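Q: What changes when alpha-L-arabinofuranose is included in the input?
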Amino acid sequence: MKISLLILFLFFFSFANFPQSENPAQIFIYPDSGKYQISRNIYGQFAEHLGHLIYGGIWVGDNSSIPNIGGIRTDIVRALREIKIPNLRWPGGCFADEYHWRDGIGPRNDRPKTINTNWGGVVEDNSFGTHEFMDLVEQLGCEPVICGNIGSGTVEEMADWVDYLTGDTLTAMGKLRKKNGREKPWKVKFWGVGNETWGCGGIMSAEFYSEELARYSHLLKNNGNNRLYKIASGGLESDYNWTETIMKKWSNTQGWLQGYLGGYSLHYYTVTHDWDHKGSATNFNEEDWFTTIFKTRRMDTLITNHSRVMDKFDPEKRIGLIVDEWGDWHDVEPGTNPGFLYQQNTLRDAVVAAINLNIFNKHCDRVKMANIAQVVNVLQALILTNKDKMILTPTYYVFDLYKVHQDATLLPIELKSEDYELNGQKTPAISSSVTKSADGTINLSLVNVNPDKSIEIPCIFKKFNPKEITGKILTSSEMQAHNTFEEPNNVTIKDFGQFKIEGNKITVKMPSKSIVVLKVK
Ligand code: AHR
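A: The predicted holo structure follows.
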């Protein structure tokens, strides 16, 4: 208590040394006071067997005329490597709790066909299975995040899958893997023990799931030097009782000793209106823009409140909060299969992505992974494909701009923002996060959510005079701006130079509805 009072005093005392500004928006930055590292895994992706994500979006098969390596599209791999994709979650989602991994191994022609009952009732031919997914993550150079089936599976089935992936060839599962063409065990760290077990993953109660989680997790083995980081399914959005129940069980059983829990998941989607009428991805007005941004900021409240419950049982923050599904969920594009969740992606989605990533960065002491839903052709996609063509969405460019934050140290900031007001409602106009990379570069990301007004932001550094700055921006004159197969470069990253340096201050002139990243030396 005394120590925290002292820290508070020092904090205020040091601000007293900063020049005060009249400007309602300003940021104070402490370049030498960073404490927490931002896990690169916050910049993760999600790939479910849903619509044209896996089939057509990633997997075209090795006989395709679309350029591929082992059946996997080379253009997608190239684009995702460019943004340094750190991890990929698979095979769902709701699909995970109906997926039986044995359907997806062995000669492709012999694999059984099943029905994807969650997503459009289409035939799943299982041509993309365990080996294909592990090949994909190897091509991407990222870590796999596998979500196991607790809803319709068994402990034995899930434990066998772990052994198939990571076990020695002396074991039955290791032998089977070798027979299917892969001798060396793979490395798999992140393992989801069910998905949305309150809903599509089994309609369980928190109490029932907490028992199941302990049983399943305890029986999934660490083979050789492979260490699993098991992720529990969280409750529905603000179900803090669910968090309390899981954390209590973990703490009562000294779960940390048994290592049965590494992370606890939270899903939150931004829906502009309601689940029946979510709103169009491209045809929206300023009220919709405001509402979307206002609602996306609920992520901060959810993380704060879930973290508070977790802190009660885990003050040392051993358990990570894993936001393994997030993003904008709009109505599907007219004329497309409603079960395929295909939506366009505008500058509004880019702003939503940037705000969420700033929120995750801010909470990086607890948030250890996040996976935007989803990577290609589904929901807030980074990439859209049409046969052999591929376009990058505004959301992709946010991940490109923000990759500088991966593994960087979060710097404490004091952000004062003016409000963006519409129809008597307000939300802060500015969102930001500031980090320091291993080479000492300071990365400043700024979002001006106001679609009508440019804003000048003085960024004042404590005991540091910037010498060299490079800037990049993502913006457009239209809120609804997006990329199409005919016009793929409507919204792309441009160089940005609207800033000036004076001593320890950079004043940045942020255009309306823009995202800026500055690299400061
Ligand atoms: O991302 C689409 C679906 O949303 C996932 O399958 C499910 O987990 C969530 O409800």
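Observations recorded in class: The longest helix spans residues 298-313.
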